Amino acid sequence: MNLLSRTFYNSRRVMKALKLFFIISGPGIIVMLADNDAGGITTYAATGAKYGYGLLWFLVILGPVAYYVQEMTVRLGAVTKRGHAEAIFDAFGAFWGWFSLLDLFLVDWLTLVTEFIGMTAALAIFGVPAWVTVLVVTVAMGAMVLQGRYWTWEKIAFLFCALNLVYIPCAFMVHPSLSDILKHGVIPNFPGGFNNGIFFFLMANIGTTIAPWMVFFQQSAVVDKGMQEKDIPWGKMDTLVGSIFTVTVAIFVIIVTGTLLKGVNVESAAQASIALMGINKYLGTLLAIGLFDAGFLGAICISLASSWAFGEVFGWAHSLNHKVREAPWFYACYFFTLVTAGAVVLIPRAPLVLITLFVQVVAVTLLPAALVFLILLLNNEESMGKFKNTLSQNVINLSIVIVIIVLSTLYGISALFPNLFK
Amino acid sequence: MNESFKIRVRGFCERHFSAVVEVNRRYAAPRIKVTPLVSFSLLLLRIYLLLLVGILFYKFYTLVR
After folding, report:
1. Helix (H) or strand (E) holding A90
2. What pTM, to 2 d.p., does this model score?
3. Which fold has domain A44-416?
4. Could you give the ipTM of this predicted complex?
């Protein structure tokens, strides 16, 4: 009887904890899965096609890297109740504030263009014209925010996050050899030796795993959700689960292209989908749907990151819980970025390849600043109190930030000078 | 004529950039305690950004040439 009652009590405790987790989770899982955006999926597909399973171990390492960086935004947002843009303005003054805000707007806008490129390319496989894709996406994203509740927005975003997991069944459909995955993918190695080519792919994978908009988005989302200091452990758990998901999806994309397209020069995920359609129609279709979803997920987060940041700094009402008439500037900013980015894709002979390269270059001007500010803010005892970084957290985070800055800078430079690492 | 132009420009700026002026006023001074670590980090960041801008200009120059 005692055992029965204890089991009942424990199971109720677990159920209660799970319920609480589902209430508080959101920003971490969404930002991490949105990190697997159109550009991310392209990078993973190209990595698998080029090196097979050889770099899977590297993706596993990137999981904790993403977690440690994003976890800091949870603490900062929950304790200060400020988004990252406002926190930078407040702590470092107007110069660094304007630099971060305008750079964020530029990076977000350019990245949004790349998401539209991914989405239109994915639906073009099914014969959908680009203008229809842009129109439908804009209307759908508008409807998502105009319903006037953060909670509802988050739940809809979760649906698209779930669709991002489509790559997992895809990997099972290609029947990969488990022994080959374990043999080539688990133990750290550099297929063909450490050369400039592999270095470029390592940098590209880091560049897609940590993006500046993620820092701004998650901190603002934590504030908009109304997370308190007591919710920090749940926020960390949310981020941890998200980082596991993001790495899992990346690994499964690599397994798909590594199994079927090894040796093929993949330049975009849409190209990989078309190639896979020739092998297995359903597989190529699922991959194209996944690519569209990846672009959509990235777009809904990126467009919000800019709007939140402007709202925080200018003191506008800037919550998804507000109706349009209560927060007109917030929604105006959201729709401005969305509509203009979508329109660029429709311009005939627009320099889309150049824009894609330019994103990488502009991102490296913002990422180091955002990460350095993050570390400095997390060490500010006055505002963070007992939630400031501990010594071990500082050692881990500082090491990660230095490595990210060096590699993402080299990645940006390689975009400017393509022959440097080839 | 010149004076009225100046007044008009000032009026335009006040009407359209007052929000920016207000933000600059509100965040005029950094509120974080400026320790040697903070100032060193900001200095490194400035140097890093200057280097990047230099590389961008070099790329632009080589493209134009």
Report:
1. helix A84-124
2. 0.88
3. Amino acid/polyamine transporter I (1.20.1740)
4. 0.80
